[in-house]
Design brief:
Elements: H1 14-34, H2 48-51, H3 64-75, H4 97-109, H5 120-136, E1 144-148, H6 151-165, H7 170-173, E2 183-188, H8 193-201, E3 209-212, H9 222-234, E4 238-245, H10 257-267, E5 270-274, E6 299-302, H11 304-307, E7 315-319, H12 322-329, H13 360-395, E8 399-401, E9 409-414, H14 421-437, E10 444-448, E11 451-457, H15 465-485
Parallel strand pairs: 2-3, 2-4, 4-5, 5-6
Antiparallel strand pairs: 1-7, 6-7, 8-9, 9-11, 10-11
The structure holds pyridoxal-5'-phosphate (PLP).
Residues 91, 150-152, 192, 194, 245, 247, 249, 274, 276-277, 303, 306, 315 line the site of pyridoxal-5'-phosphate.
Length: 486
């Protein structure tokens, strides 16, 4: 319905905004209270949502009531609810009340801190909040933090800085049409695909990331790393960086960062630590060891939007060498010169983006609302639930835990006695599909040593032992149904 009462040429009037915004907040509070009753994995089929949307935008403005009705009736049914307490796929993430309020205020302020003067408080709150977080994670003084949208971008920036530090003149001359050695980045076989993608973007290529073997617990082998770098150097290849992972995606294994750092120091190679997921565990004092050696890294990424109760998006890149990051990225045209000059931080200098959303606000609100102890308590509980689940699985005949559980991820499978590996793979895929189709829990899978395994990732603030127990029951029921039908 067209809303003809609206004044032309201006924004929504303040009183109308107040009314609709209050209604939207009421919707949010009800949604967050009841999300556990919605199907966690949306049952929509591909194209179903698009088919309900008009092919072109309305000619005249519409009433907010109508827009919000479609939001409820068309959009929400097509949402897979990452807020659901039984979302156990990939890495379960979580928003939070204070985080959502922060995000709303960010939208209202709509600042863009490309330069200090275009966002003085934004710039300074980002630096201060990231210094708080650095201390909470037990990282050393002198690390400089900046916020980006995703770990993929944080890592891209870190590896671009490593390329700049190598002194190849890439910033000025680029990569093509020049006499350059082949460039190489090293990471374990278990590394996240964002490292391969960074290689693609930076002109290093997929082949430019060399995958190092892991030990029996899926951790990078530092001796194999050292041998690979030396072999490449002897062949005229230029090592740019090593990426160590604290909490790998498939199994949450933790690379031996300290020993890797020693190799990097000896061979003079940039060390980047991907702690996108696992770094949050360092907020728990007795789990600080997950970042052991990370103080020696040149750069490190951790995602508060993953396991620190901050809504997507918020990824933090720390570096000991902010000067190199600036050297890689700072380009200042006339129209961005300011009287403050170099005496202030201009966030545009720390990555490929010019504009900067005010993401620090939600992180600041979350850290203040929960406090260091509140954050630690919740992360500790997620890890306890994971260990508990692993114990139940390990004690159940026909089920096996497939990797150690250092954090809040359990990797496991069902393996009936005497069944071939190929049939076990297919069986686990069917069990997962059956559980996901119930809408009452959502799990994902990976391969470990070539075999299909299921991943049960705990990370939502609403998740309790009941939710974990229920999902474990659904898994056993799906396995029984499979046994009965074969
Ligand atoms: C989640 C994750 C990423 C990617 O994070 P995005 O923010 O989605 O880009 C990278 N590395 C690890 C280890 C992760 O867990």
């Amino acid at each position: 319905m067209t809303d003809r009462s609206r004044p032309r040429g201006a924004d929504m009037p303040p009183e109308e905004f107040r009314r609709h915004a209050h209604a939207a907040v009421d919707w949010m509070a009800d949604y967050l209270a009841n999300v556990g009753e919605l199907p966690v994995l949306s049952p929509v089929r591909p194209g179903e949502t698009a088919a309900k949307l008009p092919p072109s935008a309305p000619r005249h403005g519409e009433a907010v009531e109508d827009i919000l009705r479609d939001f409820r009736d068309v959009i929400v049914p097509g949402v897979t609810h990452w807020n659901h307490p039984s979302f156990f796929a990939y890495f379960a993430i979580t928003g939070s009340g204070p985080g959502i309020i922060g995000e709303m205020l960010t939208a209202a302020l709509n600042t863009n801190a490309m330069l200090w003067r275009t966002g003085p408080a934004q710039t300074e709150l980002e630096e201060r909040t990231l210094d708080w977080l650095r201390q909470l994670m037990g990282l050393p003084d002198g690390l400089h933090g900046t916020i980006h949208d995703t770990a993929s971008i944080s890592t891209l920036i870190a590896l671009a800085a490593a390329r700049e530090a190598a002194g190849l003149g890439v910033r000025e001359e680029g990569l093509s049409g020049r006499d350059l050695p082949r460039l190489r980045v090293y990471a374990s076989r278990e590394v996240h695909s964002s490292i391969d993608k960074a290689g693609v973007t930076l002109g290093i290529g997929m082949q430019g990331t060399r995958k190092i073997d892991t030990d029996g617990e899926f951790r990078m082998d530092p001796a194999a790393l050292e041998a690979a770098i030396e072999q490449d150097r002897a062949a005229g290849i230029r090592p740019l960086a090593v990426v160590a992972t604290t909490g790998t995606t498939s199994t949450s294994s933790i690379d031996p960062v300290r020993r890797i750092a020693e190799v990097c120091r000896r061979l003079d190679v940039w060390l980047h630590v991907d702690a996108a997921y696992g770094g949050s565990a360092a907020l728990v004092p007795e789990m600080r060891h997950v970042l052991d050696g990370a103080e020696l890294a040149d750069s490190l990424v951790v995602n508060p939007h993953k396991w620190m109760f901050v809504p997507v998006d918020c990824s933090v890149l720390y570096t000991r060498r902010p000067d190199v990051v600036r050297r890689a990225f700072s380009v200042v045209p006339e129209y961005l010169l300011t009287p403050e000059g170099e005496s202030v931080t201009n966030l545009m200098d720390y990555g490929p983006a010019l504009g900067k959303r005010f993401r620090a606000l939600k992180l600041w609100m979350v850290l203040r609302y929960f406090g260091a102890e509140g954050m630690a308590e919740r992360i500790r509980e997620h890890c306890r639930l994971a260990r508990e689940l692993a114990r139940w699985i390990g004690a159940e005949p026909g089920w096996e835990v497939m990797a150690p559980v250092p954090l809040s991820l359990v990797v496991f499978r069902h393996r009936p006695h005497g069944m071939s590996d190929e049939r076990v793979d297919a069986l686990n895929e069917r069990i997962m599909a059956a559980v996901n189709a119930t809408g009452r829990a959502y799990l994902s899978h990976t391969r470990v040593n070539g075999r299909v395994v299921l991943r049960f990732a705990i990370g939502n603030l609403g998740t309790t032992e009941e939710h974990v127990r229920d999902a474990w029951k659904l898994l056993r029921e799906a396995a029984s149904a499979e046994a009965a039908s074969s």
